[in-house]
Structures are given as structure tokens and as C-alpha cells.
């Protein structure tokens, strides 16, 4: 990475000037003055009791002898400002083009399990499921681009009260079904359900449980019986899983989101006895009001952290139980170095309790990272959680459909895309609008979902990024039609906009480092947007295809191809597919 390379050069210059300092180099916050800067003279000043500007002048004098710099100078009160030579920028661009990792820092040896998605079986996906899915998918892809082994697990809610509610409601509607007989045996028959039926049954059961105490108790009993493997309920549960799982996968596919594992709370059930035994043998669990709990408060807590309940008073398991059992399962199955949980900010206390309990019980080695990666709420223009016009929670499929239809209308209005490609292009553009509109925001913050803004081909939007790719595609198609070769080397700076564009490419690795370190796709969104802005200026300011100087034309065509490769690399990590033309 260029800042690391420069840091080594500056550290060597400090040493040559007589100072034992490990320097740090950053991009300049005053690009009108220089490209890079070093502030390490202030630390050297304290160590050597010398004015920082004097040290800066001495170190800059050493750097100025290196031909990689066009200019290196000390600036009061103690900064070292550096500007690279055009020849060195061209060389770094060529090095980047030859690098199979595209300048992305590599963290080999990391094995990361990412818990994201988290839908409940028997319930349709709604807009509240959007952020976990697309943030988690992007973090998984970023980790892989950074050389890590990363797998995604959706951790289905398939073993809790929502299943009990569905079972209880179906039992009341169809008591004649064999699965509700206490004498049910395998082979007695299972009713064939549909996604439409489940979509109607769960909301009805949920609403009923809020006003009908007897029905709510029946649902709790059904949940308990399911978790204790009642044969008929298990058979019905498997049918619910078959139907609901297919529906969930279909909706995630539309978002270009996938999971390597579709484990659920039910898969962790087999580890619960072991969990209880561990907690008991280590003297961590005790009874409180009939429930089994573990204390997880610490002396340094500034706010109360309640004990974590690992078994309810009726003997059933709850989320904390299955989350702890899942940690055991993940340790056995994957032996990860990190487990990331991409969930709503409101789950922070819950996961704090779970992580502390897991640490106290030594469910994973101390060096394994358990990380809560919370995210904010997607709101409507009124600043409140996004709703339908009728005030209900919008289904995710409806949102995708609405944005896709809007994208299709614009494509048809413009008339540039072949008719047989329009629907697929509309899907890709719609998903790009949704994903980029979400991921460009700081992960932990709320944001406003504004479809018109997200679908705009101007500004910081996914559509603008796709438009830039389509513009480069057009240049490369025309070059091929003219019989022009697209080289992958021979870069040379011949204009200010060209220099700035190259510099944006060779410094891109810094954004990848931040995106991985802070688990924040927003850094890549900002970086790819700035690359597109600089390419637009390059496109408008210089000749490319009709440049008379062949060497300059070849350099610019090579740069176009490299910019496209860089943009696509960013979009790949954001889970966004490109389109050929717009």
C-alpha cells in the first residue's frame, strides 16, 4: 500500500537525519498543497527536544533527494508535505494493474463466520430484514477480497414461539390433521402447505395471541412440545421449513444475497444439554424465580447488565440459550478466528450478555473474536421506520418490485437497452439503487430511504456508479470497433485529471483497509464514488479515442480499462452486479 511504502521511506529519512522515529504517512487533507503528509515530527520534537519545523526541514531535505518525489518540504509548525513524481505515479499504476489483489490488503489466516439475515421461518421477509442481509453479505465479500476465509450463516428463527403460534393456529383450523394426534407416527401423513397460507396464518396467530390468553398459552405449549420432539409437530415443522425456506431463498436471490449455511436455532438444539452441563459444572448457572440464569455483570459496567436467562421457568429454551449453543456449534464446525453478528442496534444488550456468558464458560478460546456489528434503522421520509402507504410493514419482495418497476420505466423511456435485456437490467439497477443507498451510510446510523434519490443517475448513488461503468464499456466497445488495442500497461501522466485519477486508484487500498478494520462497507462506497467522479472529469477534459498521439491514446485506453476493473472490484464487494449499458 502506497502509504506504507512512503512511511518506510520517511522513516528511513528520519534515521538518516539522526532521528530514531517510525513515521506514519497519510493522504493530505489539503490536496491543493500536496498529496501526502507526515505529522511524526511532533512526536520527534518531544523525544529530541527540538522544534518540529526544524526536524521537518531536515527530513524533507533527505526525501527531496529521492526521485519518487516531485516535491518534499517541511512546513511550519512541523509537517512534511510530499508530492509524488508523475513517473512514480505511472509506475505505481502499472504495479497496481499487475497485482492480482488490485492493491487490496490481505489478511490471510483469518477464518470468519458471519451471522446475518436472521429471518424467522413462517414469516415473510419485510424491509426490516434488508439491512442485515445486504450489510452482512457485503462484509463477507469484503473479508474474502481481503484474503480471509469467510462463511455466512443466516441463523434461522425456526425453533421458537413463532413456530408455536403457527402450529396452534393450524391446530385450531384443522384439528383433523393427523399431525395433531398425540399418537402420530412417521408415515401418517403431513398436510401440504404453501407460502401464501403461512403468510396469512402467522399474522393472524400473532394478533390473536395478543388478545386471547388461552390461545397464547396454547402456542407456548406447542413451542415446548416441538422443542421436546413431539412427532406430529416435528413432521409439521419440517413441512413449514420446506415451504418457508424456499420462499426465503427466492427473496434473498432477488437481492443477490446468499448464505453458505442455513443453520437455525433447531440445529443448535442438540448442543443445549452440553451447554447446560458446562454452565453447571463451572458453577455459573443458578435458579432465580424458577428460571436458570448466569450472572454476567462486571464491576466496570456503567449501566446495569442483567443476568442472562438460559432456561425459562417452564423448562423451554429462549434466544440466549440457542445463541450460546450456536457458539459451541460454530466452534466445533468451523474453529473460526472471529464470529461477526450483523444485527439491529437494539440487540446490543442481548449479545453483550451472550458474549460475556460465552467468555465466562470458555465456549470459545480467548483469542476468538465475538463481535456485535449493529446497524441503524431504515426510515421513511418522515424520519420514522419505513412503512407502506397504509401504515403497515412493507414486504421486502414488494420493495424490490417497486424499485425494479421504477427502474424499468426509466430504461424504457430512454430506449438504450435491448428489449430482451430490460427486465434483467431493471432488476440489477433497482438492487444497485437499494444496496448502495443503504451501504453508503455509516452502518450504525439510521438513514432515509428515498427511492427517487437512490434511482438518480447523478450524485452519490448506485445508479451513477453503474452509469460510469456503462460509459467505460461504450469507450472500450468503440475502441474494439476501430481495431484499437486495449493495453494493460504503458501508463503515463499527460494531464492533471489523469494524474488525479491514477492517484485515486493507487490509494484505494486504504479504503479497503478501513472497510475491513471497521466492518464498514461505506468506505468502499465513498471510494468508488470518488473514482467515478474523477473518471467523469477525465472523460470530459481529455481526448481518448480521437487522441492523435498514439502513446497517449494507448495510455488512456489502458487507464479506462483499469478504472473499470477497479470499480467492478468495489461493486463485487458490495454485492452489486453491473450492466453493459444504460
Structure write-up:
The chain is α/β, with parallel strands linked by helices. The chain has 21 helices and 13 strands. The chain has a 4-stranded antiparallel β-sheet. It has a 4-stranded parallel β-sheet with strand order 6-5-10-11, sandwiched between helices. A 3-stranded antiparallel β-sheet has the order 7-8-9. The two termini are 34 Å apart. The model has no long low-confidence stretch (mean pLDDT 94).
Write the layout of secondary structure elements.
Elements: H1 2-16, E1 25-27, E2 36-38, H2 41-48, H3 52-63, E3 69-75, E4 79-84, H4 86-98, E5 111-115, H5 130-145, E6 149-153, H6 161-173, H7 195-209, H8 213-227, H9 231-254, H10 265-268, H11 272-281, E7 285-288, E8 291-294, E9 308-311, H12 319-334, E10 338-344, H13 348-360, E11 369-375, E12 378-379, H14 396-414, H15 422-439, E13 447-448, H16 451-454, H17 462-481, H18 496-506, H19 508-517, H20 522-541, H21 550-573
Parallel strand pairs: 5-6, 5-10, 10-11, 12-13
Antiparallel strand pairs: 1-2, 2-4, 3-4, 7-8, 8-9
Helix pairs in contact: 1-3, 2-3, 4-18, 6-7, 6-8, 12-13, 14-15, 17-21, 18-20, 18-21, 19-20, 20-21
Rg, Cα atoms, Å = 29 Å
Q: Give the strand content.
A: 5-15%
Structure annotation, total helices: 21
- By DSSP, the count of extended strands is 13
Low-confidence segments? none
Mean pLDDT: 94
Distance between the termini: 34 Å
Largest sheet: 4 strands, antiparallel
Return the structural class. alpha/beta
Helical amount: 40-55%
Overall geometric form: globular
Output the strand order for the largest sheet.
Answer: 1-2-4-3
Amino acid at each position: 500500500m502506497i502509504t506504507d511504502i512512503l512511511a518506510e521511506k520517511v522513516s528511513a529519512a528520519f534515521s538518516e537525519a539522526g532521528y530514531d522515529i517510525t513515521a506514519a504517512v497519510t493522504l493530505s487533507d489539503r490536496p491543493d498543497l500536496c498529496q501526502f503528509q507526515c505529522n511524526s515530527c511532533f512526536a520527534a520534537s518531544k523525544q529530541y527536544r527540538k522544534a518540529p519545523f526544524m526536524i521537518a526541514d531536515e527530513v524533507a531535505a533527505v526525501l527531496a533527494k529521492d526521485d519518487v518525489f516531485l516535491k518534499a518540504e517541511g512546513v511550519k509548525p512541523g509537517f512534511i508535505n510530499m508530492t509524488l513524481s508523475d513517473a512514480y505515479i505511472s509506475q505505481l499504476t502499472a504495479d497496481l494493474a499487475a497485482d492480482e489483489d488490485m492493491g487490496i490488503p490481505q489478511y490471510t489466516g483469518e477464518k470468519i463466520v458471519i451471522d446475518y439475515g436472521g429471518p424467522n421461518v413462517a414469516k415473510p421477509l419485510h424491509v426490516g430484514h434488508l439491512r442485515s442481509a445486504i450489510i452482512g453479505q457485503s462484509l463477507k465479500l469484503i473479508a474474502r477480497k481481503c484474503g480471509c476465509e469467510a462463511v455466512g450463516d443466516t441463523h434461522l428463527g425456526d425453533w421458537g414461539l413463532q413456530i408455536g403460534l403457527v402450529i396452534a393456529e393450524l391446530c385450531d383450523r384443522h384439528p383433523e390433521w393427523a399431525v395433531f394426534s398425540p399418537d402420530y407416527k412417521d408415515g401418517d401423513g403431513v398436510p401440504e402447505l404453501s407460502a401464501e397460507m403461512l403468510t396469512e396464518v402467522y399474522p393472524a396467530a400473532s394478533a390473536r395471541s395478543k388478545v386471547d390468553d388461552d390461545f397464547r398459552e396454547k402456542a407456548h405449549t406447542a413451542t415446548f412440545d416441538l422443542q421436546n420432539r413431539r412427532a406430529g409437530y416435528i413432521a409439521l415443522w419440517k413441512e413449514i421449513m420446506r415451504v418457508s425456506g424456499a420462499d426465503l431463498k427466492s427473496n434473498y436471490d432477488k437481492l443477490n444475497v446468499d448464505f453458505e449455511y442455513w443453520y437455525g436455532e433447531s440445529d443448535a438444539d442438540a448442543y443445549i444439554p452440553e451447554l447446560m452441563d458446562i454452565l453447571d459444572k463451572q458453577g455459573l448457572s443458578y435458579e432465580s424465580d424458577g428460571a436458570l440464569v448466569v450472572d454476567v455483570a462486571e464491576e466496570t459496567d456503567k449501566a446495569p447488565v442483567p443476568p442472562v436467562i438460559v432456561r425459562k421457568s417452564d423448562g423451554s429454551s429462549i434466544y440466549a440459550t440457542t445463541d450460546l449453543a450456536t457458539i459451541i456449534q460454530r466452534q466445533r464446525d468451523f474453529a473460526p478466528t472471529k464470529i461477526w453478528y450483523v444485527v439491529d442496534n437494539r440487540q446490543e444488550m442481548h449479545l453483550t450478555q451472550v458474549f460475556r456468558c460465552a467468555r465466562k464458560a470458555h465456549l470459545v478460546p480467548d483469542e476468538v473474536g465475538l463481535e456485535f456489528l449493529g446497524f441503524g434503522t431504515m426510515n421513511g421520509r418522515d424520519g420514522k421506520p419505513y412503512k407502506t402507504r397504509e401504515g403497515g410493514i412493507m414486504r421486502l419482495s414488494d420493495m424490490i418490485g417497486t424499485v425494479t418497476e421504477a427502474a424499468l420505466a426509466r430504461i424504457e423511456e430512454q430506449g438504450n437497452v435491448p428489449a430482451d435485456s430490460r427486465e434483467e437490467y431493471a432488476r440489477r439497477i433497482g438492487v444497485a439503487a437499494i444496496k448502495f443507498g443503504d451501504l453508503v451510510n455509516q452502518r450504525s446510523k439510521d438513514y432515509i430511504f428515498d427511492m427517487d434519490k437512490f434511482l438518480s443517475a447523478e450524485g452519490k448513488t448506485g445508479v451513477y456508479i453503474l452509469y460510469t461503468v456503462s460509459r467505460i464499456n461504450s469507450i472500450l466497445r468503440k475502441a474494439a470497433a476501430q481495431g484499437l488495442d486495449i493495453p494493460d500497461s504503458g501508463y503515463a501522466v499527460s494531464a492533471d485529471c489523469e494524474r488525479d485519477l491514477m492517484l485515486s486508484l493507487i490509494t484505494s487500498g486504504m479504503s479497503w483497509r478501513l472497510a475491513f478494520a471497521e466492518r464498514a462497507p461505506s468506505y468502499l462506497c465513498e471510494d468508488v464514488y470518488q473514482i467515478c467522479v474523477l473518471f467523469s472529469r477525465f472523460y470530459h477534459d481529455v481526448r481518448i479515442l480521437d487522441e492523435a498521439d498514439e502513446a497517449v491514446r494507448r495510455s488512456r485506453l489502458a487507464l479506462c480499462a483499469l478504472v473499470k476493473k477497479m470499480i467492478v472490484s468495489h461493486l463485487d464487494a458490495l454485492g452489486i452486479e453491473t450492466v453493459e449499458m444504460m
